[in-house]
Amino acid sequence: MHFDLNFPVTASGSISQPKKNKNKQPQQSSSTAFTPAQIKAIEARLDLLEHLGYTVIAFNQSVNKKIDQKTHVNILDGLLKQLRARPGTIFLKRLTIVLDNDSEKGFGLTNANVSLVEPYDVIALLPTTSATFSLACLTHSLPSPLTAHIIALPLTLPRLPFQLKHTLVRTAIKNGAVFEINYAGAIGGESDASLSTFGVSDTGVSGKRNWWAAAREVVRVTKGKGIVVSGGVASEADYRGPNDIANLLTLLDLAQNLAHDASVAVPKSLILRAQARKTYRAVLSEPMLVVPE
């Protein structure tokens, strides 16, 4: 069983924009958020992933700055209804919040927005400042209904916008969070278009060079523990098989067993913890009250 926890998707824009009237709530358009051409392209990418041996795929929806109850629309529920059934393949829904300076005041992971976050199977944070990186590692990795289990890193930028401090990294891993490495940057492939719009992704030769330098730093600080590798690619030509990815990770001075676990064991345990996110303090089983006679 192999996992790809970053299958980026972007709606076609058929979702109506919220109006500025004070007493009116934004409404979702009755038309589908994905055109037939987009569905056909997504199905082709899924066919290739199945051929490569991936059986658990997480569709990734990215939002900028914060999740807002007035403007947020879950585009993944409608997407899953449009895709054809694939026996033996598990589809998951992932929400990634790109954090910037404005996010330091809050990025929506509050009790008031539990109903917005609950439909997603996996929650990820992509910090771009030192303050948001500290919040992701220390606060939002703690067990709760709003726990973020994946901390994604902008590896293709000219340099990481924050320092990977050992204390923060160890605390996040101890709390159960993992650090994500998307291999799209290693091959200079086409990545999520929304991340390029948010200014946290770069492609081409410079992006590839930046990725290798930053990924080696991640492996050095984490000592190879708590790392999950995902695709994050938007083009069929950039996908790679699990064995190819494991070999690629060994070039980062990562041991072969840890390179294998990054796409198998680590994401599997991550999904189990993500399921426990919806229980009280991540308790795996429901407690039973036994009244003595």
Descriptors:
293 residues; 7 strands; globular
Write up this protein.
The model is unreliable at 14-32 (pLDDT under 50). Helix 4 packs parallel to helix 5. This protein has a seven-stranded parallel β-sheet. Helix content is 34%, strand content 16%. The N and C termini lie far apart (48 Å). With 293 residues, the protein is of the alpha/beta class. Helix 4 (130-138) links the parallel strand 4 (122-127) and strand 5. It contains ten helices and seven strands.
Instruction: Output the strand order for the largest sheet.
Output: 1-2-3-4-5-6-7
Report strand %.
Answer: 15-25%
Count of individual beta strands: 7
Largest sheet: 7 strands, parallel
Count of helices? 10
- CA gyration radius, whole angstroms: 19 Å
Helix content: 25-40%
Uncertain runs with pLDDT below 50, 5 residues or more?
14-32
Structural class per helix/strand content? Answer: alpha/beta
Order of helices and strands: EHEHEHEHEHEHHEHHH
Write the layout of secondary structure elements.
Layout: E1 2-8, H1 36-52, E2 54-64, H2 76-82, E3 90-99, H3 114-117, E4 122-127, H4 130-138, E5 150-152, H5 166-175, E6 178-182, H6 193-198, H7 204-222, E7 227-230, H8 242-250, H9 256-261, H10 265-276
Helix pairs in contact: 4-5
